[in-house]
Specification:
Blueprint: E1 6-11, E2 14-19, H1 25-36, H2 42-52, H3 65-74, E3 79-82, E4 85-88
Antiparallel strand pairs: 1-2, 3-4
Length: 90
């Protein structure tokens, strides 16, 4: 899957390019968990990041599950794993 980070908005013969904000991976993970209101599995987090194009790798490939998991495990001050779900510590 390749993320399309720009859309064209057509309005009265004018075309305006609207670019989607590209988040850092940790920001995308926090955004998904916080907006969901409850914990998510790493599989679901990875799926949603790639589906919504919330994070774009330099090589353009979808983010792999192991990269998402590595970021989560690197930040125990932000994330906690309970019952197979990742939750925010805040």
């Amino acid at each position: 899957m390749v993320c399309n980070f720009a859309k064209l908005l057509k309005y009265d013969n004018f075309a305006i390019e609207i670019k989607k904000c590209c988040m850092q991976l940790i920001e995308a993970i926090v955004y998904l968990i916080a907006s969901g209101g409850h914990g998510m599995t790493v599989d679901k987090i990875t799926e949603q990041i790639n589906l919504r194009c919330l994070y774009k790798r330099k090589d353009g490939n979808p983010v792999p599950l192991k990269q998402v998991y590595a970021v989560i495990m690197s930040h125990p001050e932000i994330f906690v794993k309970e019952d197979g779900r990742i939750r925010l510590t805040m």
